[in-house]
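Quick entry between incubations.
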Amino acid sequence: MGYTLSKERAEALFAKLKEKYQIIAPKRFPKQGRYSDTDIIRYDQIQSPDEIEYRRKSTFPMKEALNPIQQSLFFYTEDEYREARKNLKPMLIFGRACDINAQKIQERIYLQNGNFEDAYYRRRHELARFVLMECEESTDTCFCVSMNSNKTEDYAFAVRFHEDGMDIEVKDPEFEAWFADQEPSDYHVRFIESNELSVKPPVIKDRETLIALKNHPMWKEYDKRCISCGSCTIACSTCTCFTTRDIVYTENGEAGERRRVSASCQVAGFDQMAGQKEIRNTAGARTRYKALHKFHDYDARFHEGHMCVGCGRCIDRCPEFISNAAIVNKMSDAIDEIQAEKAGEEALYAR
Amino acid sequence: MRDNILLPTAREILNVKQESGHEWTFRVKTDDTVKPGQFMQLSIPRVGEAPISVSEQGEGWLEFTLRPVGKVTDVIFRKQAGEFLFLRGPYGNGWPIDRLDGKNLVVITGGTGLAPVRSLLNRYNENPDKREDLYLIAGFKDAESVVFKEDLNRWKGNFHTTYTLDYGNFEDFSSGMVTAFVKDIPWSDFGDNYAVVVVGPPPMMKFTGLELLKNGVEEDRIWMSFERKMSCAVGKCGHCRIDEVYVCLDGPVFNYTTAKNLVD
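Done. Structure below.
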């Protein structure tokens, strides 16, 4: 069912929702961007609908709300680890279709991979409901349509923001009660149907082709261009990797905390074992590892599509202006080349 | 409350034993049961966690053999009997016992690569009825690197053993890389009733694999154990992933048909 809310009514509704839910949405942090006089937009708890930055795509993805960049796992003393448990409230998390689809990938890793369930992710996941933010238009780095993530059904209600208030479409009947005294409307959420940018994910049909693609000269370009800073993976909606770190509270070092911190396969040392050399020791090798994880390995393991929702934040954030969309298309071109070469060789042998 | 898979538990160190110039074995009190070839996450509060393979197990204890090469192992080295190590696990698949039992077995190890097969070898040493002949080629860098000397001596009586050093001399050890001895195995006597286990540093495993193929060994009869950086050991942290494979979940033991394609 659809509703139209004035600014004042929206404000009043949020005040009521706040009693039950922690409301988490993209919020603008003025002058906290990486260049002088620039802002960042990231997920945080909000108190009023005014705080939601809906005009621009957030700099950092929604995953932070469910899996914080830093998270305490345990408190330790010399002879015991005690689980860090936060008293969490149910959460309403505002996100776009791509953001909500990205959480399916996070769930696949954190709740299902290897049949091990991560307790920290599970607790937040069980308390979270999504509020879909309608995209009025696609940005020049979005390619959600190519990744089939421009639409979703997984939301409690959808919102279209405008200057004077908001339009709402309630999807989950449980949420109808919150809107009982609001003015009905015929609003239905609209999804983005096309992007300026499109990608053609590579079709890697066998192990031989995969190995040929790994050895293709296309990766050499990134030895020069990529600086292995990891900005793309931190901005990525679907990247899940982390490292655990112990921190010490007291001077004698006997009490402290074990945390997990987001990690990046793009940063040197990600694969380095104690006393051994790094396995992927060039920026090109790391770029290849990430690109193939996103566009081959994930699907090869789970058979449910690629590990990318086309949110384009990796492209927005790269300080070297590397486009992952371009990398995907280059991979497809490389596959065509590999297959043409193979067909040529076969023809030669057949003669 | 469902279990927290990342929670380590304090376990008492029962005994510490020097194995070689670099390696020490820590025996830890625990009732955890582990299959040969599996590993555990060892933790030290304020330092961190590391995956370490179980080098032997017994009633109420497990052993870990390690060298001080990183933050965690450096601190474990300062621990003595009566102090605590923190454990969680076991993790990984372990050796495919059902594919090894009843066969002629060839085990080829490089250095401390002997640790993850030690309990497997002891199992076949104590239960000769579970196998045909067992050929062990154990290579070490030099005299200082030789580990599990008591086991090596005990195995001499029951296995066909070749112990070799890359450099220098030690007791009656041969000289040369393990690959040089692969051709001496009586492969043709085995028919198709055999299996091969290889563990060691990556270049050693690679060249041993190639040497085995040269000797006509079939790929699907070779098993190798991998080592990778890990934070979680439960398929979440991503550090050990190679292609669609997670070494912590799908390994560390892989059949050669998979292992040969695992390119980082």
